[in-house]
Amino acid sequence: MQLGLIGLGKMGNNMRDRIRAAGHEVVGYDPRPEVSDVPSLAALAERLEAPRVVWIMVPAGAPTRDTVRQLSEILSPGDLVIDGGNSKYTEDKPNADLLAKEGIGYIDAGVSGGIWGKDNGYGLMVGGSDEHVERAMPIFDALRPAGDRADGFAHSGPVGAGHYAKMIHNGIEYGLMHAYAEGYELLEAEPLIEDVTATVRAWSKGTVVRSWLLDLLVRALEEDPGLKEISGYTEDSGEGRWTVEEAIRHSVPAQVISAALFARFASRQDDSPTMKAVSALRNQFGGHAVKKAD
After folding, report:
1. Domain ranges of the chain
2. Tens digits of per-residue pLDDT, 211-270?
3. CATH top-level class for 2-157?
4. Which sequence positions are flagged as catalytic?
5. pLDDT category of residue 64 using cuts at 50, 70 and 90
6. For the whole model, what pTM was predicted?
7. What one-character-per-residue DSSP string does the chain give?
8. What kind of fold does domain 166-286 have according to CATH?
């Protein structure tokens, strides 16, 4: 199968490699010529045989909206566009409607896996029609982890459902990360605990708190004992805020996720071990930049 892939950053470039490794042809476009396969979006469309499937992996908001607008002018009826970035779900229907005027289909895909997805596979949750999702399934199967499809892929509902599911996924992620980080700070604070890293590592097999995030915290502590090389300043990329907004809209008492979001805001005013651990975790799974310690 052919795929056009727009956006070859940390995730997009790895996705291109994984899809190609599964035997598919990927034509990638990025403004940076050193990583791009073609010089322009128009050239990308020309390289693909109709009906085309084009996947967008660019920053949410204006960059995605602008890319969708350009594709609506370049692509042809019967083509299909997949937005795999972290767009807010409310952006999906306007994007789908704009493309539908030109006879172009649309899928929104929540993608989780960060910089490790190339080797481990990506968790996928998508929104769109049955017809469009089935058409793109060879690409979804190439990206998801090996094993049962249901363990790494969900057709969550109509357009908007994929990004909604990913938003909630990331809100949960905020809470999990912060719980691990607070536990880390408590261990650091107690003189009885002489080896914090070994203690956290001992939780990674068999215990009820084992997880990939915990494994990444161990990795961060092994690379930087005491997390002395980074500050606790931690950004948020939007999904946590949107999740809290949805909790308010649905009157769902999401105390843990809300507290984790507000803690990130507080991190810009303090430099606690808890926030150092959260910052380190974001860097470990997503390659997100950290602010170095003074």
Report:
1. 2-157, 166-286
2. 999 999 999 999 999 999 999 888 888 999 999 999 999 999 999 999 999 999 988 877
3. alpha beta
4. 166, 173
5. very high
6. 0.91
7. -EEEEE--SHHHHHHHHHHHHTT-EEEEE-SSTTT-SSSSHHHHHHHSPSSPEEEE-S-TTHHHHHHHHHHHHHS-TT-EEEE-S---GGGHHHHHHHHHTTT-EEEEEEEE-GGGHHHH--EEEEES-HHHHHHHHHHHHHHSPSS-GGGTEEEEESTTHHHHHHHHHHHHHHHHHHHHHHHHHHHHH-TT-S-HHHHHHTTSSSSTT--HHHHHHHHHHHHSGGGTTB-S-----SHHHHHHHHHHHTT---HHHHHHHHHHHHHTT---HHHHHHHHHHHHHH----PBP-
8. N-(1-d-carboxylethyl)-l-norvaline Dehydrogenase; domain 2 (1.10.1040)
